[in-house]
TrEMBL record:
Family: Belongs to the CpsD/CapB family.
Protein name listed in UniProt: non-specific protein-tyrosine kinase
Organism placement in taxonomy: Bacteria, Pseudomonadati, Bacteroidota, Flavobacteriia, Flavobacteriales
Top-level taxon of the source organism: Bacteria
UniProt EC number: 2.7.10.2
GO molecular function (one): non-membrane spanning protein tyrosine kinase activity
Transmembrane segments: 28-46
Keywords of this entry: ATP-binding, Kinase, Membrane, Nucleotide-binding, Transferase, Transmembrane, Transmembrane helix, Tyrosine-protein kinase
Reaction equation(s) it catalyzes: L-tyrosyl-[protein] + ATP = O-phospho-L-tyrosyl-[protein] + ADP + H(+)
Gene Ontology, cellular component aspect: plasma membrane
InterPro entries for the chain: AAA_dom, Bact_polysacc_biosynth/exp, GNVR, P-loop_NTPase, Wzc-like_C
Length: 822
């Protein structure tokens, strides 16, 4: 015990008490428990309330594929393949408005299939026992919920409510036009049979049964905006699987897996179909020309055949002579070749004019008059040009001309145009040289022809015309067959590697485990934030360690929380932990009295910073423990402004110190014997107008000196030093001074003034007492402060002290109005 004063007067500690903060945080375990439970409940609600979003994908390969049976080396005179589109171009096409309009129209995705769910109308596309067979050429009620209630095995009731204004919007999907329907009635309800056509001014559709009907089930359908539906489905994700590879992964998210699967698979099928049509666009136009030219040649062959027969019969000549056959064979070959070259030159001229006069190239591109001599490079460049031009126009429907893919395609188109024009110029030079040679050969053949008889010359001319027409007929017939076969057997550039399929994938949002983790984290973070904020803003005294670490005046001890309505805790419950804490203070204060180096009577001054810190309660019980130890003790109430001691002893405050100081009463007349053995009491008396002057006069000095002669201990309850200066003037009488601090009440800066006086040696023999201390507060370690501070050993004190009853919440509230801890 000799080291107590040295221990308590140790230098202020500046180290951060990590262990203390940890115990502070752990002391809020109930708050953590509640916030975590609430956060997990919120997370569960969010998992249930938020619509579940699923994501599915399909993998395709985009690679140029040509049918090996019909390449540019085959007799068919045009290229059946064509250059493959860049992967980046395919990405833009898949998200373009034009492409997605085709998908939405094919699937009728503008029709919503809904069912009442727990929180909202749920999308049940693909799960309904029916599908809507819509007449898209007629107007439909737009944006309204139509209720379908199953009433029988093959019957249902259609119900709807019109707008209160009677003005209702209609939409016709074939033309994508809206109109207005003015309804007379406020609602519509009628029963229909499956497959029965609903034909009204505002609806035109029927239901096709796909599953067994369950009577009583209710569904809803709704017709939405075509453009809005396209816009909502355009932005599917298209990414390359690996860098430099031609494989793409198409993925789409939504609340309904069936919709995602159908949309992804249909968008790939339409892309495949469009790619094939782009590849064979020029080939199909040429095939149409072959068929048209074939019919003409067939009619021409029949006409020439009749003319030959009539000529032979008229001139009585049926066969050519040997010399005529020779001339015939020579001239027919020369004329046929010359005719082909001239027609091809004419085609090249038309093609050159078309290329130079157009910026876009499509189905109106010229086709060759004679297919057999068309150059393979020309046909390949034309197919490539048409394909790229078509793709560019599609892109222009969704992006601007400054888009990188459009610029890239434009550059590629210009390159193809230049290549095509160079090939045309080269071919014309070659063809003109051939024509010069053929002209000389034809002149020689004609000179031989003139030597034949006139009738034979006429027959020979008919024979040549027939031979040329028959050759063209047979050739076109063969090429028509080849062209049809090649078009039908065209190989697509788009290959489906993995089609979209529902494999039981879980939702990508919300993720229950992730939400629960977030909820757990927030359940921990919010209390931590509250604790940190409270700690930063808190300026109250909570522990004896805080006093030691921040002030120079030592801590004498702590006093526990008094749960009684009366401040006579030691007298009323001498075995309580509070009584034991005052006995410990009585033992510890002897060190202060020894420092005073005074024998005989001891005077103890009690003060505090402000009212309400428990100064009076400590004064009463310190006087009681001295008196119960057999010492003659007097308790003086010198808090003249706010007297309260009388109430705890069930007395009135009519007579007291004030009456003596103004010479109305003698000292003996104001001393009151109490029920506590050896304890006398002097009340403050009526509240005077000049308390400071009374305490500083000579009578007050004589009174205290007289009491010191009569009693072993003089206990003086003074006013708070933080409010008035009276207590400082009374310090001169004290052999020891107790400065009362109340846990969770006194502010940290309140003791600065008295602490500075202690450091400057203006005040000595003073100690702090921490009052109203509870080991269960959120700022201690939870195990008490032991004997050194005079407050038990926490739960280990059971059996040594009287156990105070644990009060209920209503008792605690009631006691707040009855207690007075000033």
């Amino acid at each position: 015990m000799d080291n107590l004063n040295k221990l308590n007067s140790s230098p202020i500690q500046a180290n951060v008490d990590v262990k203390g903060y940890l115990f502070k945080v752990l002391s809020y375990w109930k708050l953590f428990f509640v916030t975590i439970i609430i956060a997990l409940i919120v997370a569960k609600f969010m998992n249930d309330y938020k619509p579940k979003i699923y994501s599915l994908d399909t993998v395709v390969s985009v690679k140029e594929e040509n049918n090996p049976l019909f390449s540019t080396g085959t007799n068919i005179a045009f290229n059946w393949g064509g250059a493959s589109d860049a992967v980046e171009t395919i990405k833009v096409v898949l998200t373009s408005r034009t492409h997605n309009e085709k998908v939405v129209k094919k699937l009728n995705f503008f029709i919503d299939y809904l069912k009442e769910g727990r929180y909202r109308l749920e999308d049940v596309y693909g799960y309904t026992p029916f599908v809507v067979n819509l007449n898209t050429s007629k107007p439909q009620l737009y944006g309204k919920l139509l209720q379908i209630e199953i009433t029988g095995e093959d019957t249902y009731k259609l119900s709807l409510d019109f707008n209160e204004s009677h003005s209702n919007s209609l939409i016709t999907y074939d033309t994508n036009k809206t109109s207005i329907y003015n309804s007379v009635e406020t609602s519509f309800s009628k029963e229909f049979k499956v497959e029965e056509e609903i034909n009204t001014s505002f609806l035109s559709f029927s239901l096709k049964k796909t599953k067994k009907f369950k009577i009583g089930e209710k569904y809803f359908i709704r017709f939405n905006s075509f453009d809005g539906t396209v816009g909502g489905n355009r932005f599917i994700s298209v990414v390359g699987i690996t860098n430099g590879a031609s494989m793409l992964r198409l993925s789409k998210s939504g609340t309904n897996k069936n919709r995602i699967v159908d949309y992804l698979n249909t968008t790939v099928l339409i892309l495949d179909k469009d790619k094939q049509e782009q590849k064979i666009l020029y080939a199909k136009k040429t095939k149409d020309y072959i068929d048209e030219f074939f019919v003409k040649e067939q009619e021409s062959l029949k006409r020439i055949e009749k003319e030959i027969g009539a000529y032979k019969e008229k001139n009585n000549i049926y066969n050519l002579s040997a010399e005529g056959n020779i001339v015939f064979n020579e001239s027919i070959n020369i004329e046929k070749e010359q005719k082909d070259i001239l027609e091809f030159n004419q085609y090249l001229n038309n093609l050159r004019t078309y290329i130079t006069s157009h910026d876009t190239y499509g189905e109106n591109v010229p086709v060759p008059a004679l297919i057999s001599i068309q150059d393979g490079k020309i046909s390949g460049e034309i197919a490539n040009l048409i394909q790229k031009s078509t793709l560019r126009e599609k892109l222009r429907g969704s992006v601007t001309d400054n888009h990188p893919d459009v610029i890239k395609l434009s550059n590629s188109i210009n390159l193809s145009k230049n290549n095509l024009l160079e090939n045309i110029a080269t071919l014309k030079v070659v063809n003109n040289n051939k024509l010069k040679k053929l002209s000389s050969e034809l002149s020689l053949s004609k000179s031989k022809l003139k030597r034949l008889p006139k009738t034979e010359q006429g027959l020979l001319q008919f024979q040549k015309n027939y031979e040329i027409s028959e050759a063209n007929y047979n050739y076109l017939k063969q090429k028509s067959y080849e062209a049809g076969t090649a078009i039908a057997a065209n190989v697509s550039d788009v290959k489906i590697i993995d089609s979209a399929k529902d494999l039981g994938n879980g939702p990508i949002y919300p993720k229950p485990s992730f939400n629960y983790l977030i909820g757990l984290m927030l359940g921990i973070v919010f209390p931590l934030f509250y604790i940190i904020t409270k700690e930063v803003l808190d300026n109250k005294i909570h522990t004896a360690e805080e006093i030691q670490n921040n002030y120079a005046i030592p801590v004498l001890g702590v006093v526990g929380k008094n749960h009684d309505n009366n401040n006579l805790a030691v007298f009323n419950k001498p075995k309580s932990s509070v009584a034991e804490s005052f006995r410990a203070l009585r033992s510890n204060i002897q060190f202060l009295f020894k420092n005073a180096q005074k024998d005989g009577s001891k005077t103890l001054i009690l003060t505090s910073s402000v009212s309400g810190e428990g100064k009076t309660m400590v004064s009463i019980n310190m006087a009681t423990v001295f008196a119960l130890s057999g010492k003659k003790t007097v308790l003086i109430g010198l808090d003249l402004r706010k007297p309260k001691i009388y109430d705890d002893f069930d007395l009135t405050n009519d007579v007291g110190v004030v009456n003596h100081l103004i010479n109305q009463k003698t000292l003996d007349e104001i001393i009151i014997n109490t029920q506590v053995p050896n304890l006398d009491l002097i009340l403050s008396g009526p509240i005077p107008p000049n308390p400071s002057e009374l305490l500083l006069n000579e009578t007050a000095d004589k009174m205290i000196k007289s009491l010191q002669e009569r009693y072993d201990y003089v206990i003086i309850d003074t006013p708070p030093v933080g409010l008035v200066s009276d207590a400082l003037e009374l310090f001169k009488y004290g052999d020891a001074i107790i400065y009362v601090i109340r846990q969770n009440y006194s502010e940290k800066g309140m003791m600065r003034m008295i602490d500075d006086k202690y450091k400057n040696k203006e005040v000595s023999n003073i100690s702090y007492v921490l009052n109203d201390f509870s080991v269960k507060n959120n700022y201690g370690y939870g195990y008490g402060y032991g004997y050194g501070y005079g407050y038990g050993y926490g739960k280990y004190g059971n059996g040594y002290h009287e156990n105070e009853e644990t009060k209920g919440i209503f008792s605690k509230i009631s006691s707040l109005f009855k207690r007075n801890n000033s």
